[in-house]
Amino acid sequence: MTLQWTAVASFLYTEIAVILLLCIPFISAQRWQKIFNFQFWGKIATYWNRAFLAIIVILVVLFLDAVREVRKYSAVHTVNTDSKQFPNAYDHVHMKLFRAQRNLYISGFSLFLWLALRRLITLITQLASADGNSDALKCQAESSSDAAKKCMEENEAIKRAMNRGKSDDQRILCNENAELHKHIQKLQDEIKKNAEALRKSQSEVHAVKKQSDGLSREYDRLIQEHADLQKRVDKLDKKGH
């Protein structure tokens, strides 16, 4: 394996390790967001998009080169069918073909996992933000509910005072009671709005979690497929040698 394909294979193994680390279940999205908010990541954030695009370009070029090599040796493989006259040349072409296929798998999976890694980090960040907004809306709804209960208690106290007071005082208390009713109605409307926002936030959190689970399942399937392909390539390399 040449130096460039050794580097691509190492990059692929690094991607697999990072994705496995991000998929650890007992590390929450909020903790990952705290890690992503370190000052170090803020310094390199300006170069992240350029580096991401540069790596994509490099992997695409290597992938296309591997496709070209596969097509090249596949054509030679179909032409040189007389293995009895040229057995060494046939084996050499066969070995080159399987190496080209191995490079194709390595570059293709590296490109796919690089895109999947960026998407996974984005989903983790969105999930952490959604959880934070959900907690904030829940606290706001609870505080509004407490304020409404307090107003109701004050309203009951005013009603009892009105029964004991005189007619003039009763009119004053009635006016205050009407204002309190308006205030309570306003608070109840705010509670409804906050509850609706909370439900929307929870549905978004559920959708993000469902999408993250789907990505994890797709990743597990790709890892299994990669392992199977790697075994086949290793066996074919051994046969080629």
What's the layout of helices and strands?
Layout: H1 3-22, H2 29-36, H3 39-79, H4 87-164, H5 167-240
What report would you give on this structure?
This protein is 92% helix and 0% strand. The protein has 241 residues and is mainly alpha-helical. It has one domain (3-240). The longest helix is centred in the middle third of the chain and has 78 residues, at 87-164. The mean pLDDT is 76.
Uncertain stretches of 5 or more adjacent residues: none
Shape: rod-shaped
| Terminal Cα span | 13 Å
Largest sheet: none
Q: What order do the SSEs take from the amino end to the carboxyl end, as H and E?
A: HHHHH
Radius of gyration equals 33 Å
List the total number of helices. 5
Please identify the structural class as seen in this structure. mainly alpha
**Helix percent band:** over 70%
Beta-strand residue percentage: under 5%
Number-wise, the strands total: 0
The domain count comes to 1
Mean of residue pLDDT values: 76
Descriptive key words:
mainly alpha, 92% helix, 241 residues, single chain, rod-shaped
Give a quick summary of the entry.
With 241 residues, the protein is mostly helical. It has helices at residues 3-22, 29-36, 39-79, 87-164, 167-240. The mean pLDDT is 76.
